[in-house]
Specification:
This protein has about 600 residues and is of the alpha/beta class. It is globular. The mean pLDDT is about 90.
């Protein structure tokens, strides 16, 4: 079965009957290695061909589908067609010419990439794989096509007719109709990196965030393409493009692209909503990062990002409800939430304020928060997306994890998805993190309406093994970490690509003192009260605040050292697992002799040599 993007069930409402039937044939008559996109924007100019059909051993086809009947065609030539419609006579572009223009737009995008074109010979600079275009006439049979000589303006081999896409059609015969549209045949098979490069060029929306502006379409001069271009995988792309109305929950392991999918969804919604879109998370640092993402996309006026308690405070202020007084504490925050809930219950705060609500790191939310937030969704749009990973659930304990989604208002049965592949971490980092947290990550059985524990699977990217360093004092740990940061910066790593993650407040003072003395620029929200994702400075944040963030280099001092504010060992281990999986390239762990996790970490690192 071919992969159809978006998923068929999410787009049938906007398809014509002919498009729907053709999509069904593509899905059922083609093999697993076919990729088919329906009405997906291509390039920065967002052209919208009806279908793109791609096969690594066949090539790429651009197809236009028309539901015309014979009695509606009044005149047709190679450029235009005159149709009889309810609005009278209407002139449109010949669909084959329309498909051809889309095809040339596609090839112009691809032939800028030296790795996708012939390097020499008569075809130098042209894509080295076959490409073609065609037309699907969903209500005209081949006999009717021949009877009125449509072949004079639509070459017969470039048209699929109604009786050639019946449900009973033989799969091989259906495929043969597609193959005949290619002017030349393949002599080899495209590799996975080549396929990803093609997707990268065609669909800017699925590029990894750091590569969005890497190769602007209107560049004045040819730009040198890097060897590696990163895009969403097919499951991520299909999921992102298939998110429709209703409630949906995505269970994704750390590094599986949940936040990237949220950004794609927010960008799509910003184009179509009337009321604002609300994005909520728990941590202030993640909220700052998400805000910066929306600003980068130019949608910050339509998409409002808050950490949950800041949003509650904003609701109380906006509707003139007294905020609780006192110093920040768990009790104060709980009372603030209660006042918002009470305000909604007595209609002092209106429900349905947002056309969509997107929740990142939903495992940080309490059940009563979900019940409140669900009421904020406009019932006409009913659009709610929750991103969740039970393995990263570090707040609320068993009381929260025992709940079902439906019990607090999230109706996502039949609309839940699991993402298992971890793309963030190297195989070495993920292996150590998994071995350390093996008890926490043991897969659990759960009904669809509950939160399963999903074990991450590495995507295969390799790197250096994590460094586990034992030192006699915390000062010595801070000195070693500072030297590693300096060495990395001298080697070309930006300060902003490095982070120091700490567990307790009495750790950060010694670390930042050394950073200051060595002239290392840093931002620590607990000290200088700001977190600016784009600033070229080392980010010094708590393990809790690191959730949702990622950095090429992550250093974690004082691992497992006893402390008066420690939580149960399981909670501390879960928190450390979250912090370890923030590192995309290099992980540095330092500890003293009294660390309760040193033995298990040594065993985890040692397994890499086995």
């Amino acid at each position: 079965m071919a992969t159809l993007i978006p998923a068929l069930g999410s787009v049938t409402s906007r398809m014509t009957s002919g498009e729907r039937r053709f999509a069904e044939r593509l899905e059922t008559k083609l093999e697993d290695d076919y990729l088919c996109w329906y009405d997906v924007a291509i390039g920065e100019k967002t052209r919208h061909p009806d279908f793109i059909v791609f096969h690594p051993s066949r090539g790429l086809l651009v197809l236009e589908v028309k539901d015309w009947r014979l009695d509606t065609i009044r005149d047709i030539d190679k450029r235009e067609v005159t149709l009889l419609t309810e609005r009278g006579l209407v002139r449109e572009m010949n669909p084959l010419e329309q498909a051809r223009q889309y095809m040339f737009y596609v090839t112009n995008l691809l032939q800028r990439d030296p790795q996708l074109v012939w390097p020499s010979g008569s075809l130098k600079g042209k894509p080295f794989f076959p490409y073609g275009c065609g037309v699907v006439l969903s209500n005209i049979t081949r006999a009717q096509f021949d009877k009125i000589n449509l072949g004079d303006v639509l070459p017969p081999h470039l048209a699929i007719c109604q009786d050639e896409m019946y449900e009973t059609i033989d799969a091989e015969r259906f495929q043969q109709r597609l193959w005949e549209m290619f002017p030349v045949k393949f002599t080899f098979k495209l590799s996975l990196p080549q396929i990803e490069r093609i997707r990268w060029h065609l669909f800017p929306q699925i590029r990894m965030p750091e590569q969005r502006a890497l190769f602007p379409e209107e560049a004045a001069e040819p730009l040198e393409m890097p060897d590696i271009l990163r895009v969403m995988d097919l499951q991520q792309e299909q999921l992102a493009r298939s998110l429709g109305e209703g409630h949906r929950v995505i269970h994704g392991v750390a590094g599986s692209g949940k936040t990237m999918i949220l950004g794609y969804r927010a960008e799509h919604l910003a184009k179509i909503v009337t009321r604002p879109v609300l994005v909520l998370c728990y941590n202030k640092t993640l909220a700052a990062k998400l805000t910066a993402t929306m600003v980068e996309k130019g949608i910050e006026e339509k998409v409002h990002v808050y950490n949950f308690h800041a949003w509650c405070a904003r609701q109380l202020e906006s509707y003139n409800i007294d905020r609780p007084k006192g110093r920040p504490s768990d009790a104060l925050f709980e009372e603030m939430v209660n006042r918002v809930i009470q305000g909604v219950d007595r209609k002092a705060i209106p429900a349905g304020q947002y056309d969509a609500v997107l929740i990142d790191e939903g495992h940080d939310f309490q059940p009563e928060w979900f019940k409140l937030v669900v009421q904020m969704v406009n019932p006409e749009s009913n659009s709610l997306l929750v991103l969740y990973d039970d393995a990263q659930s570090i707040y609320g304990g068993n009381r929260k994890r025992a709940m079902t989604f439906s019990s607090f208002g999230i109706q996502a049965r039949g609309r839940t998805t699991i993402l298992r592949l971890n793309y963030r971490n190297t195989q070495e980092i993920l292996s150590v993190a998994r071995a350390f947290a093996d008890d926490l990550l043991r897969p659990t059985d759960a009904a669809e309406d509950e939160a399963p524990t999903v074990q991450p699977v590495g995507a295969g990217r390799r790197g250096s093994r994590p460094l586990l360093i034992e030192l006699p004092t915390l000062d010595a740990e801070a000195e070693r970490i500072a030297q590693i940061l300096v060495d990395e910066n001298r080697a070309g790593t930006l300060w902003s690509e490095m982070a120091v993650l700490y567990r307790h407040w009495d750790t950060v003072g010694q670390v930042t003192s050394v950073l200051t003395r060595k002239g290392i620029p840093f931002e620590c929200p607990q000290i200088n009260k700001r977190f600016t994702p784009g600033a070229d400075s080392v980010k010094v944040v708590t393990l809790h605040s690191s959730k949702g963030l990622e950095f090429p280099l992550v250093c974690i001092p004082a691992i497992g050292m006893p402390h008066r504010n420690d939580e149960p060992v399981e909670n501390e281990a879960r928190l450390l697992y979250v912090a370890m999986t923030r590192a995309t390239r290099q992980l540095v762990l330092t500890h003293g002799k009294e660390s309760r996790f040193s033995e298990k970490l040594r065993d985890a690192v040692a397994r890499l040599s086995q």
